[in-house]
Amino acid sequence: VLPLLALVFTLSACGEKTAETSAAKPAEQAASAPATVIAAGGHPGQAIHDANCISCHDSGVYTRADRKMTNLEMLTGQVRRCDANLGTKLFDEDLDSVTAFLNETYYKFPK
Ligand code: HEC
Asked: How far is CA 59 from the centre of its chain?
């Protein structure tokens, strides 16, 4: 019985140690998670955009001299059209977030 008790004690001691170590580093973990870039001042739509929308064109299409979007409705429609070309269909709220990111960052159409 004694070696078994010792083993249980060792294991539980180990478990506590791990829990302490990970609890001590929430900031470090948060920094490595892309979603928390929001806290650093980025737009929530930016991460979604950067992960999905720069395979065919980069952000240069939003700022080029002959860009095609002239209002927010058009932009909303284009984001949806482009998303339809993507294999991974984004959720409505993600599309809204990406549209808001593009508008606030590049187009600046009145809402
Ligand atoms: C399958 C390829 C493809 C993907 C993926 C794609 N796009 Fe596009 N996108 C295009 C093409 C092609 C155009 C038109 C370029 C042109 O007119 O020269 C375009 C144009 C645009 C424009 C209009 C630019 C202007 O002229 O003002 C916006 C806005 C846009 N895309 C947003 C997005 C967003 C947001 C995503 C991610 C959800 C995305 N695109 C992903 C192909 C793609």
From this structure: 17
CB 107 within 8 A of CB 77: no
20 phi and psi angles, rounded to 5 deg:
-65, -45
In the predicted model, residues of the chain with pLDDT beneath 50 are: 14-25, 28-31, 33, 35-39
Q: Is the dihedral of CA 101, 89, 40, 60 positive or negative?
A: negative
59 lines ligand 1 (CB under 6 A): no
Work out the angle at residue 22's Cα, subtended by the Cα atoms of residues 20 and 24, and round it to the nearest 5 degrees: 70
Q: How far is the CA of 35 from the centre of ligand 1 (A)?
A: 23
- Between the CA of 57 and the centroid of ligand 1 the distance, in Å, is 6
Location of structure tokens 């700022």: 63
Cα angle 74, 80, 83; round to 5: 140
Structure tokens that stand for 24 in this block: 């001590």
For the chain, the average pLDDT equals 79
